[in-house]
Amino acid sequence: MTSRVFCNRCFQPPHRTSRFSLTNCGHVYCDICLHKGKKDECLICKAPCCTVLLSKHTDLSIQAFFMGIDGLCTKYSKETSQISEFQEKHKRRLLAFYREKISRLEESLRKAILQIEQLQSMKSSQQTAFNTIKNSMSMPLAKPTGHLHLLPSSSDSERYRYINTQSSRKSLNQHL
Ligand SMILES: [Zn+2]
Ligand SMILES: [Zn+2]
């Protein structure tokens, strides 16, 4: 502890062997004054309290109350940069995780799009094949028009035969 520590009750300059205690109500006592008061009660403010001995082994957060501004700045700027470095690493790990996840998702999306394109091309080629089969099956139904064209010639010959029969009948009647 530094020379900034002094007893809040007797204000005696500290000796080499002096020991001081801090109460949770914020008062500092030398050993002599501390033993003059009641146990677990502050002699100055009468508040129920507990005390902690100030030494180089005391918790650093308590020691900080007795440090000079320069020391505090060094301590806290070091702590701040350590904390900031830790947070930065922590954030980078999370970002790396999300980047990896995003690239995995992009890869599966790319594969899915490829599969969809393949399925669509298969579907369209199947559709083409189906249309070809459908057209080839409907061809004979369209042909009768052509077939009917052939009929007049046969009906012509039939008509010719009919006329011949009629004329032969006529001539036969004339003979009779
Ligand atoms: Zn004292
Ligand atoms: Zn007090």
UniProtKB/TrEMBL annotation:
Zinc recorded as keyword: yes
Residue stretches making up the RING-type domain: 7-46
Any one GO molecular-function label of the UniProt entry: zinc ion binding
UniProt feature coiled coil, ranges: 95-122
Pfam families: zf-RING_5
GO biological process: homologous chromosome pairing at meiosis; protein sumoylation; reciprocal meiotic recombination
InterPro entries in the cross-refs: Zip3/RNF212-like, Znf_RING, Znf_RING_CS
Keywords per UniProt: Coiled coil, Ligase, Meiosis, Metal-binding, Zinc, Zinc-finger
CC per GO annotation: synaptonemal complex
Function as written in the Swiss-Prot or TrEMBL entry: SUMO E3 ligase that acts as a regulator of crossing-over during meiosis: required to couple chromosome synapsis to the formation of crossover-specific recombination complexes. Localizes to recombination sites and stabilizes meiosis-specific recombination factors, such as MutS-gamma complex proteins (MSH4 and MSH5) and TEX11. May mediate sumoylation of target proteins MSH4 and/or MSH5, leading to enhance their binding to recombination sites.
Name of protein: Probable E3 SUMO-protein ligase RNF212
Name of encoding gene: RNF212
